[in-house]
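Blinded run. Sample ID left blank on purpose so nobody reads anything into the name before looking at the predicted structure. Input follows.
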Amino acid sequence: MQQPSNGIIHGQPTDEVVLIDIVSSLSSPYFLQRKPSKAPLTVPLVIPEPQSGEPFDPALAERHTKKREWIKTNLARLQNEYSQHLPLRLSEQLQNTLINDPDVQLADDVYSGEPDLLAFQENLGAAWISYHDTDTQVDLVPVSLQAISLVDIYGSIHHNPLSDWMTLKITIDKEYEYMIPPKSSFLLGPFTSTLPVFRSAFGKSSNTPGFDFVVLDPPWNNRSAKRAKHKDSYKTSTFNVYDLFKLNVTDSLCDGGIVGIWMTNSTKWRTFLLEKLFPAWRVEMVAEWTWVKITVHGEPIFDLEHPARKPYETLILARPLSATRPSSLASSDNNDRQKLEDKVIFATPDIHSRKPCLKGIIKPYLPNSDPRCCEIFARNLTEGWFSWGNEVLRSNWRGFWT
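Blinded prediction complete.
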């Protein structure tokens, strides 16, 4: 079945329930086809329960109790109303294996010949700051005519002003090709050391229009990250979660803009977000979108009633405090936008930590019809968006396509 370019298999962006294919939600050249990245689960995983049999996070258990029936009801809808779309993404070349731990299931995420962007950056360290100008923004059109060193890409904003895809040749240990989407821009580098570059380009003093949407997927420290055995797991040693206070995200948002942040199910980090970080950012939670991870047959990837682990992650959506009040929504664009409400997104997991691309479902909620969007801690580029992260180019390596 041919998937739509926004990855939505069933439902409309504003529906309470949306079924998404993660791989086809990513920006991809119309003339290339993405290689299958992971054998999709055909049966739920079996995860041992804690020896005590008791939840290690009582507050999570309480939140789960409140949303359990909502998830169950929508799972039934998925399996009944969307049955014509099941099973999902099966491939004769991919074989599923029943594994007892999803962290091991996600272990082999590295493609043959894939460049190691993290290893390169570890060798640069703080030395980069001494010779890079935070005001530097580079047009990729002349740069693309020849190979460029990753040293020159690192720590500067680069953009593709064209309305078509561009091939960028980058020299690391050897020359690699990267596919750059139309009208996209990116900043490659760790959050803390490249934050001054972001501020200079998109802060209040930059005189650039604010973003309609800023989404973050920080590497929250958790048990799963510690257990993960994949070679290129996101290295939390390069990131201090308390540095998020330095972001001042509202300085980079337009009037009525939205900030979204992907959360683990940890009560510790949820409390940190809602009671400390959001007040510091001067934003207020307005909705919660739940990504329920399913097998190709529409079942949760493991038992919904497991006392310690939940087969879902959440996206917390917030608006600046002033923009959450009706009196601030004065323009016709703002009045036409959809009201943010809770949503459930069904999707089969892909490679480690990859989230569904939100471009296809966030637009109706944004204040402008041609929105400016930003993804922080990104691992791929999105058409028309600004993306920032120390692996921001990873999924745009030419080797990911046939």
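Unblinding after everyone has recorded impressions. The domain at 204-326+336-388 is CATH 3.40.50 (Rossmann fold).
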